[in-house]
From TrEMBL, chains A, B:
This is Uncharacterized protein. InterPro entries: MeTrfase_7 (IPR005299), MeTrfase_capping (IPR042086), SAM-dependent_MTases_sf (IPR029063). It comes from the Eukaryota. Keywords: Magnesium, Metal-binding, Methyltransferase, Transferase. It comes from Chenopodium quinoa. GO terms for biological process: methylation. GO terms for molecular function: metal ion binding; methyltransferase activity. Pfam families: Methyltransf_7 (PF03492).
């Protein structure tokens, strides 16, 4: 969701980080990984182009010879890598044009299928790791949250053990992520991670839960009207956790392999992606069609897996209406937490 | 075609080569590439498993600690990588079982989309390169073979300039392949290449052309009966060249980056893959259905691209009949040329 805006917001952080690293280390082959790259978002190659452009500028300033890049695009094995791979040729062409340099080296692009909650790369191999809007996804639904009943994520009415279980799963997963990457990233290497998060110190926060609150409202209505069995709803929970910058810092320091170099917390309106808004109409004329489309692309696989195909159309029709009503009342935003980490040693 | 048999035939060559390399060099991360891996043939991961098993045995004999493997599966970007990637988890499981070692390290599998007639990997990166039944495919149909008319590959009636154009294209492509790999393979690194080839010194040889001769016969019949325009057939040629071991040696020495360590020429019957043969029937009861299926998987994309979809069913019905008649008269074989090359320096 809103990937393009996030990439723009975090551009300066990424540029600063990679420029510093490159100017100091100048590796023969610079290895970059994009974790959770997702085929649907072809922005994935956009990030890579941005990083390479920054390094190429630094390289020319320093008067260095041509540089080789090894680029790894990672996502789960079920991801559509074929589509990404078929766009690589045009990516390389536009990269060469963009950089406009005669002594541009080689950029080798690889696909890496697998979960980033396990090892993906050889020891001491990566120089720069990027991940955007992926790390809030947990490796599984937290265990022991049967009493989250009519909620589907941390809600104002969630019992404390549910909130704790969500945080514990995030801590476990994020620690595993850091521990795996600490083996793979060279000393001095850098990770820039953007995670959907929250500013509040409270684990329930409207800014990070409201999109799921609204979806839960729709699901509960559909239970009342007999579309969905109550028991089915009670066992459905979203495997996501939206951390605060403080929680990220805490877990990171506890794991111990990385130093926090930069932190940035930004917000993006739910409306940031709207294409249907016309300038001469009042603000209430937003359709929120694009917002719902984004949410659907994220939530549909989970919903289909749990409830089956048959409720989906009705569900998202209602969700669109619910979002539209909610948005006439107030402005809603997503919170992005971006951190730049440096591997110790 | 007949990949399984070929992999078996060339097992000892591969084992000897990788064992020698590993015992001498013992790299921290051993980088293996399978070039032209093809999704349809899931044997591709079989080769990798075989290589890793050999190294693991050598490692245990030498008393070395656990070993990391970086495995690259390469094919053209249009290949179905999704299918390969979805089989990797089960590959890793069976690898661990097969090796049965508690201190098995990590095996990282990557997909590499691109043509091996260009650069695919960073400089000095690969330790072992494998390619089976891919290098006889040319980067394009040779130029200047308009007078190959009713033939579709080098045939007994092909004019000398056609034969030369085929060889020239192969020399150009294979030289490019060696030159790219010479940058990517570390000094002392090894390539084991199996190419569909021929034993004859003559560039036309029934053993390497007969499957295409028979296809040309069918196509010519279909021209006579009005299924295909004559002009269409005259401009159709298979972008393949089946070299002899001597030609491979000649080009290799001319390019100069590798030393020829082992050569093996073997033959595989067209019937090697037959599943439909029953032991209690006479030999003439072979259906050759599997042989034609293999040929179809290889030739269909080329044929569809040139003649359109509509002739395909009729074409392969006739091809099956033609092959069946041809095989009652004599035994036909494919020739495999396998070479093991060592990077100089």
């Amino acid at each position: 969701m809103q990937q393009k805006q996030v990439l723009l917001l975090t551009k300066s952080i990424k540029e600063k980080a990679i420029k510093e690293f490159y100017s100091k280390e100048r590796p023969t082959t610079l290895c970059i990984a994009d974790l959770g790259c997702s085929s649907a978002e072809l922005n994935t190659l956009g990030v890579v182009a941005e990083l390479i452009e920054t390094i190429e500028n630094a390289r020319q300033d320093l008067g260095n010879g041509s540089q080789e890049y090894q680029v790894y695009l990672n996502d789960l094995p079920g991801n559509d890598f074929n589509t990404i791979f078929r766009s690589i040729a045009s990516f390389e062409d536009s990269l060469k044009k963009q950089i406009g340099s005669n002594n541009f080296g080689h950029c080798f692009v690889n696909g890496v299928p697998g979960s980033f909650y396990g090892r993906l790369f050889p020891t001491n191999h990566l120089h720069f790791v990027h991940s955007s809007y992926s790390l809030m996804w947990l490796s599984q639904v937290p265990i022991g949250i049967e009493d989250n009943k009519e909620n589907i994520y941390i809600a104002s009415t969630s019992p404390p053990n549910v909130t704790e279980a969500y945080y514990d799963q995030f801590e476990k997963d994020f620690t595993m992520f850091l521990s795996c990457r600490s083996k793979e990233v060279v000393p001095g290497g850098i990770m820039v991670l953007t995670i959907l998060g929250r500013t509040s110190t409270e684990k329930y926060s409207k800014e990070s839960s409201y999109e799921w609150d609204l979806l839960a409202t729709v699901l509960n209505d559909m239970v009342l009207e007999g579309f969905i069995e109550e028991e089915k709803l009670h066992t459905f929970n979203i495997p996501q956790y939206t951390p605060s910058a403080e929680e990220i810092r805490f877990i990171m320091e506890k794991e111990g392999s990385f130093i926090l170099s930069q932190v940035d917390v930004s917000e993006i309106s739910w409306e940031a992606n709207e294409h249907y808004y016309k300038n001469d109409l009042p603000k209430t004329a937003f359709t929120h069609y694009d917002f719902v489309k984004c949410m659907r692309s994220v939530a549909e696989p989970l919903l289909v897996n749990h409830f089956g195909e048959s409720i989906i159309e009705e569900l998202f029709k209602r969700y669109l209406e619910t979002v539209q009503v909610a948005m006439t009342k107030e402005k809603n935003v997503f919170i992005n937490v971006t951190v730049s980490l440096t591997r110790k040693g």
